[in-house]
Amino acid sequence: MLNPLCCSCSHRKRISLLMTMYSMLFFMYFPRTLTTTSVYDNRTSYNLMLTLSGMKNLEPKSVFIILSLSVYLFIILLNTVLIVTIILNKPLHEPMYLFICNLCFKELYRATGFYPSFLYLLFSSSHVISYIGCMTQSFIIYTSYMCEYTTLVIMAYDRYVAICRPLEYHRTISTHTVAKALLYSWAFPFIMGFPNVIITSLLPLCGSEIDRLYCDNWSIVKLSCLPGTASNIYGFIVIGVFLAHGVIVLLSYQRLIVACRNSADNKKKFMQTCGPHLLSLLNFTVAVLFDLMFSRYGSKEFPEHLRNFFQIEILVIPPILNPLMYGLKLTEVRKRLFQKCKKY
Q1: How high is the mean pLDDT of the chain?
Q2: Which residues have a Cβ under 8 Å from the Cβ of 77 and sit 6 or more positions away?
Q3: For residues 46 and 131, is the Cβ–Cβ distance under 8 A?
Q4: Is residue 10 classed exposed, middle or buried when 0-12, 13-18 and 19+ CB atoms within 10 A define those classes?
Q5: Which of 158, 186, 193, 221 is least surrounded by Cβ atoms within 10 Å, i.e. has the fewest?
């Protein structure tokens, strides 16, 4: 008679042997996955320090520190002056000026996401940033891009109603509508930005070097051990959504140009209020598209100083150009600014 304990032992041995064989086969066919994902898993990624290698050749550092600090302070000064001028003058509490004020807040938001960190790393010899700090900087910069674009779209619609449907302006662009538009310009970019952060944070990393002057989402995705397919697809969805916003702007301006053909008064309004807006929109759109395409498909053979220039252009030109254009071009704002200057 067979001993049931012996049968049980032999059965266990067979199971153990099969498990060992399957383990060996798994290691033979998937060695890369196991070895790479063990470098940085999701638990260790949050404690990881990333290196911004694009900053290594910024010499002499003292010159870049002075330039960066000067630009940052200049951006703060220009945008703050315009914000304070609009807030303190009741005649400027109109939708168009409130949207301009909102645009200036977004410029300060983006500049604060980049310049303090950039200046800190210039003083540092290692040029390293924490994983959480890198993700935060990437989120601030990209949500600021989306915030600026939503604001420019709202401003285009405001100008369309003001010029093409002037009798309906105060009914269409009411205080309630302005409040909802301002909320939308901030909330929608944040709603679109959070899923991207979540998708990227779930990826295990196999590297720690970012070949840029600042953190961006796609550079973090490229460090992943796994394909960034989900992040790539979602990124194209976001680009598609904001290209749709661009179509809305083009349709608005097409209507505006038609409306201004036969009216001298409308032509004057268009040149005063739509000129700066159109220039700002074109400059910002080209800069964002170039930055996005270069971060995804740019070649390392491209000269480094040109790469650095195109990366930083969007963080320097729009925050300075926008308040200058709107402050000097719009008659009411310019008048109020000069009145304040005369008092002091």
Answers
A1: 78
A2: none
A3: yes
A4: exposed
A5: 186
Least Cα distance to 156 among 305, 256, 283 occurs for 256
Residue whose tokens read 């009741």 = 90
Tens of pLDDT, residue by residue over 198-245, are 998 888 888 888 888 888 888 888 888 888 788 888 888 988 888 888
Coil vs helix vs strand at 129: strand
DSSP 274: I
Cα–Cα nearest to 273, from 174, 148, 185, 164? 164
Q: In which residue are the tokens 């700066």 written?
A: 276
C-alpha dist (Å) from residue 205 to 17, 30, 131, 338: 34, 17, 10, 54
Question: What gap in Å lies between CA 114 and CA 311, rounded to an integer?
Answer: 12
User: What's the whole-number mean pLDDT along residues 248-262?
Assistant: 77
Distance (Å, whole) CA 253 – CA 158: 11
- Token pair, residue 117, equals 């960190």
Tokens of 21: 């064989």
Angle made by CA atoms 23, 24, 29, in degrees to the nearest 5: 100
Rounded to the nearest angstrom, the gap between the alpha carbon of residue 302 and the centroid of all alpha carbons in its chain is 23
Distances (CA, A) of 84 to 16, 260, 295: 75, 32, 36
pTM, entire model? 0.79
Question: Rounded to whole angstroms, how far apart are CA atoms 69 and 115?
Answer: 8
